[in-house]
Automatic annotation (TrEMBL):
Keyword field contains Ribonucleoprotein: no
Protein name per the record: LuxR family transcriptional regulator
Species, as recorded: Dongia sedimenti
PROSITE patterns per record: HTH_LUXR_2
Domain HTH luxR-type: 185-250
SUPFAM superfamilies assigned to the protein according to its UniProt record, in alphabetical order: C-terminal effector domain of the bipartite response regulators, Pheromone-binding domain of LuxR-like quorum-sensing transcription factors
């Protein structure tokens, strides 16, 4: 008996690089009536203030080219209701901007989301399924299939296929994730130098500035400068808060 998921895994194994695998995923989604897809990944999903962090990787298929710029540089990612639901969900869900009250969007949509809603309605991308992918280290990805100009009952029909769509998303993510380079896996929200991170890490271990200076063979004033700059970049009030925020962004464990 032919297993479409085994065939999909085989096709991903044979594909050369991320772009070819995205094409394979798009083809797999087409079997369920989707016309477009989005995949994004971020090593840390939320800033310390609770805002969504712009992903370090965002890939689109059969979607207006300006969407990537709006979401990554125009601030739309932070006000995307689908991403907000996904970041706080462990299960795939159907969403609809044509009938939001009957989908997962109904409980989160607010006036601040209006620019995203208007854009998706203007581009006729009003219905889809999103698969949240939460990794053990805190990394976060979403795999989304979208239907341009969906029929009235398209969203309802999708619910019986949620498990299959989720499996496609997880198989795809499992195939591409090992090839991510250090830049993609690095949290871009806060940029600290290697010395600033090292000084914070040693401070977190209980060392004083004097002890760190001795350990790194630097002047105490230099260590204090590194720590002061790190505090400023993290928007912290003091070294304790800076350590907490650096840990939140996974800077102290070498993960980012």
């Amino acid at each position: 008996m032919h297993d479409p998921f085994v065939a999909f895994e085989t096709e991903l194994d044979r594909a050369h690089g991320l772009e070819d695998r995205l094409d394979a995923a798009q083809a797999a989604l087409a079997a369920y009536g989707f016309t477009s897809m989005i995949y994004d990944y971020t090593p840390v999903p939320f800033a310390h203030d609770g805002e969504l962090i712009t992903p370090s990787l965002l890939k689109l298929r059969n979607i207006e080219a300006n969407m990537a710029d709006l979401w990554c540089r125009g601030g739309y990612y932070q006000i995307d209701p689908v991403q907000l639901v996904a970041a706080k969900s462990a299960t795939p869900f159907v969403w609809s901007y044509a009938q939001p009250e009957g989908s997962a969007l109904g409980r989160v949509m607010a006036p601040r989301h209006a620019p995203v809603v208007s854009y998706l309605k203007d581009t006729r991308m009003t219905c889809g399924v999103t698969v949240p992918i939460h990794l053990s280290g805190g990394d976060f990805a979403t795999f989304t299939g979208i239907r341009i100009d969906p029929e009235g009952d398209f969203g309802a029909a999708l619910r019986q296929h949620l498990a299959a769509i989720s499996l496609i998303g997880h198989i795809f993510h499992g195939a591409v994730y090992p090839d991510f380079d250090p830049r993609i896996r690095t949290c871009q929200h806060v940029k600290l130098t290697a010395k600033e991170i090292e000084c914070l890490r040693l401070t977190a271990q209980g060392l004083t500035a004097k002890q760190i200076a001795h350990k790194l063979d630097r002047a105490v004033g230099t260590i204090n400068l590194h720590l002061t700059l790190a505090i400023k970049k993290l928007g912290a009030k003091n070294r304790v808060q800076a350590i907490a925020r650096a840990a939140h962004y996974r800077l102290l464990d070498g993960a980012c």
